[in-house]
Design goal:
Blueprint lengths: L4 E6 L3 H13 L3 E7 L2 H7 L7 E5 L7 H7 L5 E6 L5 H4 L6 E4 L4 H26 L2 E6 L2 E6 L3 E7 L2 E6 L3 E5 L2 H7 L6 E5 L2 E4 L3 E5 L2 E4 L3 E4 L2 H11 L2
Parallel strand pairs: 1-2, 1-3, 3-4, 4-5
Antiparallel strand pairs: 6-7, 8-9, 8-12, 9-10, 11-12, 13-14, 14-15
C-alpha cells in the first residue's frame, strides 16, 4: 500500500490512548493524525481532518461510542476498542470493521488493522479506476495527453488556465469555468477559490483556510467554497 492509512483515536482513558498510539507508531502503513478523549471534540473539528480509520472507545462520559456512530455520518472505517463485550451486537449493524476487547495485544491489533487495510485499499482502487481518465490539453499547436489523476490543481491566469501536474505545468487558452465543467464528471476535482480548482486526491492536509497539496503547495480556500469542499471530502 503506497499511501499511509490516516488514523484517529477517540478514547477517554489516557493509558489506552497511549497504547493505541504506540501500536500505530509500530506499523509503517499507519499514520496518527489526531487523538481525542471524547467524540464531541472530534465532531467539532472533523471538517478539518481527513481520516481513513478511527479507533473508537464505547464507554465514554460525554457521548458513548454507539450514540456517536448512530448520530455522525462517517466515511472512515471504524475499529471498536472497549473493555465490555456487551456492545458487540449493537455494533454489528453499524458496520464497524472489528471489535477489539481490552486488554488486547499487538498481534490482535495488527489482525484488525490488516483487515481494515484491505477494505480501505479496495475502496481506494475503485475510486482510482473511476477517476483516472485522459485529459487532452491544447497547448500552442499541440494536443497533450494528461492523466486526470496526475493533475494537482488548475489555476486561472487571465485568459489562460495553468494546469499543474506532478511533473510539469501547461498554459492552456481557456476559461476556468470551461475546465470546471469538463472535469465535473470526475468526482475528485473541486473548486476551492475563484482562481483554483484542485484534485482532492492530492490533499495532504487542511489548516484554517489553506489547503496543502503534496505537502509543499499551499492554496487559499475561499469562504464561498469552503463548505462545498468539506462536503465533497466526505464522499
Amino acid at each position: 500500500m503506497g499511501t499511509k492509512i490516516k488514523c484517529i483515536i477517540i478514547e477517554d482513558e489516557p493509558m489506552a490512548s497511549k497504547l493505541l498510539s504506540s501500536y500505530i507508531e509500530k506499523m509503517d502503513t499507519l499514520e496518527l493524525v489526531a487523538s481525542f478523549d471524547n467524540p464531541t471534540d472530534y465532531i467539532a473539528t472533523k471538517e478539518n481532518i481527513a481520516a481513513d480509520l478511527i479507533f473508537l472507545d464505547i464507554c465514554m462520559p460525554e457521548m458513548d461510542g454507539i450514540s456517536f456512530l448512530r448520530m455522525v455520518p462517517l466515511y472512515a472505517e471504524v475499529i471498536i476498542t472497549t473493555a465490555s463485550q456487551d456492545y458487540a451486537l449493537k455494533c454489528y449493524p453499524l458496520k464497524v470493521i472489528d471489535y477489539l476487547l481490552k486488554p488486547f495485544r499487538y498481534n490482535r491489533f495488527v489482525e484488525a488493522v490488516n483487515f481494515a487495510s484491505e477494505v480501505i485499499e479496495l475502496k481506494r482502487n475503485q475510486k482510482k479506476q473511476k477517476n483516472n481518465k485522459l485529459l487532452w490539453l491544447k497547448v500552442d499547436k499541440k494536443l497533450i495527453k494528461v492523466q486526470t489523476s496526475d493533475v494537482l490543481y488548475i489555476e486561472a491566469a487571465w485568459e489562460y488556465v495553468k494546469v499543474c501536474t506532478k511533473k510539469q505545468s501547461f498554459m492552456v487558452l481557456a476559461q476556468m469555468k470551461d475546465f470546471e465543467k469538463k472535469l465535473d464528471e470526475y468526482n475528485i476535482f473541486c473548486r476551492i477559490h475563484r482562481s483554483f480548482l484542485i484534485n482532492m486526491e492530492h490533499i495532504s492536509y487542511i489548516e484554517g483556510n489553506i489547503v496543502y497539496i503534496n505537502d509543499n503547495i499551499s492554496l487559499p480556500i475561499s469562504r464561498n467554497y469552503k463548505n462545498t469542499l468539506f462536503e465533497r471530502l466526505k464522499d
